[in-house]
Amino acid sequence: MEYVEKGISSLTELEESLVRTVARDGALIAITLCSITLVILIIGTAIYHWKHGTVHEEMVHEESERRKKKNLKKRVIVNNNSIKDAQS
């Protein structure tokens, strides 16, 4: 009878040990998958911005266009249709 009780006790300990091992391995697998997903997301975002530019570049482009228009407005037409820069 003692052997049967020890066997059941051993099986229970083995089962608990197995459950802990599977839980630990499952957590490691989940962390690994999340890390891989995050790395892929970061690399994808970097490639997208490298190919398509960023919002900052668009703002800089708009600013340069505005400056060009402002500089064009400073020129005035004087007698006999010649163009002269306006004095600030």
Automatic annotation (TrEMBL):
Transmembrane segments: 27-50
Keyword annotations from UniProtKB, A to Z: Membrane, Transmembrane, Transmembrane helix
Protein name in the entry: Uncharacterized protein
Source organism (scientific name): Sinanodonta woodiana (Chinese pond mussel)
